[in-house]
Amino acid sequence: MHRLSLYGALVALLLALAPVSAAPGKFYIIGMGTSPDLVTVRGDRILRQADLFIVEDDSDRQAWKEYIGDKEVWVAPHGSRVGYGIDPNEVKDPDLRQLVIQNAKHRQEAVDKIRQAVEAGKTVVAPCWGDAMVYGTLWYLEMLPKDFPSEVIPGVGAFEAGSAALKKSTTFGWDTNSVILTMGDFVGRVDTNEKLMRIGTSLVIYTMHLDYPKVFGQLKRHYPANTPVAVVCYAGDPEKQKVIYSTVGRFLSEVDYQNLPADLHILFVGKFLEKGQARIDGLIGARRFIERQHGSK
Q1: pTM over 0.85
Q2: Which of 121, 158, 185, 241 is deepest in the core (most CB within 10 A)?
Q3: Residue 22 three-state SS
C-alpha cells in the first residue's frame, strides 16, 4: 500500500508539472447581416465567445460595440485589398507600385497576427457586413494554410434582405428562371454587364461606384423600356429601409440616383417585380413531379 501511495503521488506530481497545452483556437469570418438585428444565432454565439476582433474601419467598433466591448481589436483597412493578386513588379507607375507593396505587407501582417493568436488558443473573429461570401473580405482565408482552423458563418446579405423588402423572389420571372448577381464593370473584366444583359434574365446589381447612365444605356439595348426596376436603400434596416420603383426607360429621369446612399443601396431589374411567382407555363410541366414529392392534394 505504501508503494502504491508513493506511485500515485509521483504520477500526480508529474501531471502537475507537465506543460498545459492551450485550448484549440479558431478563426471566424462572420456575416453580420445588413442590420445589427439580423445576426444569425450561430454568429451571435461565436461573437460572444470571441477573444479579439479584426475590423475594416473604426466605425465598425461602434456598430458592433455590443459584442466588442473592451476586447482587443485590430484594424485591417478595407483599402488593404487594393493590389491583391497583382505582382508589384508588373506595375509601371512607381506610386501605385509602392501602394501595392505596402498593402501586401499590411495583409501579411494581419494574417500573421491571426495565425499567432489562433495557435495561442484564441478565438479570432472578423465580422463582415451582410454576407461575407458576396463581395466580402475573404483574403485572410486565402492566405492562410488550407487546413488552418477556420469557419465562415453566413449572414443575411443585401441580396436576401433586398428581395425580402420587395416581397418578390428574383429566381422567378415569368419566362426566366435565373438571377445574375453583378456590379459595375472594371478594367480587364471579361463577363461584362453588356454580355450578361443579352440573356435577358433577372439582374441584381451591387452599386459600388456604379455608373448609372452607362448601365441604363446598356439596359435599354437589351430590356424593354417597361421592364420593372427597383432600388432598395438600407435593405433589412427596420427604420431606414426604403424601396424606389421605376422602369428601365424612366429610371434616369425620375430617380435621383446621384443622391442614393453610397454603398447602401442595391438595384433589382426584371419581370419578377411585376409577375411574381407566376410562370409562363403555370407549372403544368412540373405537375407530376409536384404530385410525387408533395401529394396530389
Answers
A1: yes
A2: 158
A3: coil
